[in-house]
Amino acid sequence: MPVSKKSAADKLISKFIVIEGLEGAGKSTAVSYITKWLAGQNIATCDTVYTREPGGTALAEKMRDIVKMEITGEKLDDKAELLLMYAARVQLVEHVIKPALMAEKVVVGDRHNYSSLAYQGGGRGIDLGLIDVIKKVALGDFKADLTLYLDIDPELGLTRAKGRGELDRIERQAIDFFDRTRAVFLSLVAKDKNAVTIDASQSPALVEKSIFLALDKWVMSLA
Ligand code: Z5A
Questions:
Q1: CB 19 within 8 Å of CB 150
Q2: pTM above the 0.70 mark?
Q3: pLDDT tens for residues 88-135?
Q4: Residue whose CA is closest, atom 53 of ligand 1?
Q5: Ligand 1 pocket test: which of 29, 79, 208 has the largest number of ligand atoms within 8 Å of its C-beta?
Q6: Ligand 1 binding pocket includes 75 (Cβ within 6 Å)
Q7: Which label site among 48, 130, 189, 223 has the fewest CB atoms less than 10 Å from its CB?
Q8: 170 lines ligand 1 (CB under 6 A)
Q9: What is the DSSP string of 185-204?
Q10: What domains, with CATH codes, occur in the chain?
């Protein structure tokens, strides 16, 4: 009997695709490229769920506000910042992402777990092993099926981000904070067979092309 071949659309059912990168890397822009690519695989926008982190539920958005705000006279402790990222992530995973995957949707996430390892681990200097323990307690084995990491020199990324308006509390960190963050992103992606680095300093057209190629290769590798 002939073995039936799954279509790309069938393979994409219940998949969680994440975009990571420094500010100004073009993550929001990349979401539109992924949407275009998914349409080419016969995945409609109504079958796709978009998330952003921190945020994505009513409570998680409140936590996002706390993470971004500055209060005179009280610094948000680095560990409190880390725990807020995971509190927001648990809300999002349990209330939005898992139900969407159960409903056979494709989920496209603007940031996920690698951001905590990179920013709170690399940038803030919190032990990566400790973050892994918190991740395990909060989310167990839950993880992205594919991570597209948009790699950019922090100076260029911040220049792009500044073009959009005022920088927030994290964006105002010194450049070496972002150098450390980038270094952790790169080391995580290098060890993850389900992650791909995209050169985000390229023109938008070339970034789009690179993302399409990465997605094509990934979907072909799926059973
Ligand atoms: N954070 C954390 O510390 N720990 C965590 O666990 C998580 C997050 C989950 C979220 O901020 C902050 O939380 C973030 C990390 C931290 N803080 N910092 N710093 P956010 O969601 O508000 O911001 P963001 O995630 O950094 O996204 P962004 O600044 O909006 O950047 P983007 O989405 O990557 O970029 P973009 O909006 O698509 O593009 C930026 C500009 O560049 C825009 O004008 C584009 O038109 C332009 N662009 C895009 N692509 C190109 C190319 N290829 N060439 C030229 N120009 C381009």
A1: yes
A2: yes
A3: 999 999 999 999 999 999 999 999 999 999 999 999 999 999 999 999
A4: 204
A5: 29
A6: no
A7: 223
A8: yes
A9: HHHHHHH-TTEEEEETTS-H
A10: 8-221 (3.40.50.300)
